[in-house]
Amino acid sequence: MTCSQGKQIHSLEKFPEEAIVTCDDDLIYPKNWMHSIYQEHLKPLESIIGNCKIHFTYDKKRNTLPYKSWK
Question: Whole domain around residue 8: which residue ranges?
Answer without folding.
Answer: 1-71
